[in-house]
Every structure is written in C-alpha cells, then in structure tokens.
Design brief:
The protein is of the alpha/beta class. The protein is built from seven helices and nine strands; from the N terminus they run H-H-H-E-E-H-H-H-E-H-E-E-E-E-E-E.
C-alpha cells in the first residue's frame, strides 16, 4: 500500500510538471553558448531544481511534452531548439539508466560475495562439504584463467592455480587433452591444454567424462607438453594437475 501511494504521488507530480512546462521553457534548456559543457547545460536549474534531481518518470513526461512542442514548432529555429533539448534529456536519461544498472549490479555482486564468503567459511570449518565445481571455485578462490596460458604458455610454469572450461578432445596414457576452439571473422583459433589427474583429484561428475564433453577444471600449472599440428608444426600446451573437475552448468 505504501509503495502504491508513493507511485501515485510520483505520477501526480510528473503530470503536474507536464502541465506547467511550456514549449518556450523547454526550448530554453538548450544553451545559447555552443561551447558550454553539456554537463553544465544538464545541471542548470529548471523549475527550481537541477535536471539531475528529476526522476525517470518525470523526465519521460518532459520528453513527451517536447515531442508535442516539436509538432507545433512555429519555425525551423524553434524545432532545432526543441530537438537539441530532447538530445540533452536523452543524454541525461542514459546517464540515469547506466547509474541504476551500475548500482543494481553492484548490489547483486555484493550480495553474491557475502553469500560466497559465508559458504567458504562453512567449508573451511568442515560444516559444509565442497559438493560441486562452483563450491570449489569459492573454496580455492582461484583467480587465474586456463584460457590465458592456453593462448600463451609460460616458458617456466608458475605452479599457480588456474580454472577454466574446456572440451575433452582426447586421451593418452598420461593426459586428458582439452581444447578451446572458436572462429573470429575468417580465422579459426584452436588451443590445447593437457590435464593430469591423480588420486587426489576430485571429479564431481565422472560420468560426464567423454569425448566432446565440456568440463570445468581447477588445478595447478605444473609443466608444458609439446604436440604436433596437422601441418607438422610443433607447438606447446600447458599441463594442469587437476584438483577439481566438474560440469560447467
């Protein structure tokens, strides 16, 4: 009920603005000084408050009024003034939208981070088990991407912890071979990584380990391995000793 009352009050306020704002006043939003900074134009006082203080609903009402003014413009000059004012309002509304989205994203990220911190604390204490690859990412706090070292392997592997999603491409006596493949424009890109599993490797979804399956891995970059391309060229790929393997979804 409180929300409904606030919404009705807001719409009533916006409607009042539409009634009192004249076409001349809307045209005056445009500065006569072409060198003036557009931010100064937007923050100029308009009906006793900064344009930045108007809500999105009120700005939409003002824009609607501008459209009406454009339709009844008495001259090309008036029309240009209205259009210039409308462009400024569009810029302001875009700023508002970006800020609203930024704040929403920030709140979502903060909430997700708090949940992750709480879950990691439970896993560290043993109260909660690491049950999937998402838990493993939270638990290990891995930051580095497997994709980066697939593109450019280090000459001296750093033993660091890496994570990423790859497609199973093959297997030999020592390693599982994974790949990332994509096309950009006319160019096709193909990168490989070799996965070493041990008795300590935790595989959350062993039944999904098949050729062509997409899996997520977390592990240490321990060495490099050479392989030959179809054209006979020798290339190098990183070797990851896996701590965790799981589905990507």
């Amino acid at each position: 009920m409180k929300y409904l009352f606030g919404l009705l009050l807001l719409l009533f306020s916006a409607a009042n603005h539409a009634e009192v704002i004249t076409c001349d006043q809307l045209a005056a939003l445009r500065s006569d000084n072409p060198g003036a900074d557009w931010r100064d134009k937007l923050t100029a006082n308009f009906f006793g408050k900064s344009l930045f203080s108007y809500t999105m609903e009120e700005l939409n009402v003002i824009k609607s009024q501008l459209k009406k003014c454009e339709q009844v413009a008495s001259s090309d000059k008036n029309l240009m003034q209205y259009m210039a004012s409308e462009q400024m309002l569009d810029s302001l509304m875009e700023i508002d939208k970006r800020e609203i989205n930024r704040q929403a994203d920030s709140l979502t990220q903060e909430s997700a981070q708090r949940e992750a911190d709480a879950r990691r604390k439970e896993m560290l204490s043993g109260k909660t088990k690491i049950s999937n690859i998402k838990d493993a990412i939270i638990y290990t706090q891995v930051k580095k991407s497997v994709y980066d070292i697939m593109k450019q392997p280090l000459l001296s592997p750093d033993k660091g912890l890496y994570a990423g999603s790859i497609t199973i491409d093959g297997q030999d006596a020592k390693y599982i071979r994974g790949k990332i493949e994509f096309t950009f424009g006319r160019q096709q890109y193909l990168y490989y990584v070799y996965l070493k599993t041990t008795k300590k490797t935790i595989n959350f979804n062993s039944e999904s380990m098949r050729l062509g399956a997409e899996i997520a891995v977390i592990g240490h970059y321990i060495s490099n391995a050479n392989y030959k391309t179809l054209s006979g060229e020798t290339k190098m790929a990183p070797v990851i000793e896996c701590e965790y393997i799981g589905n990507t979804n």
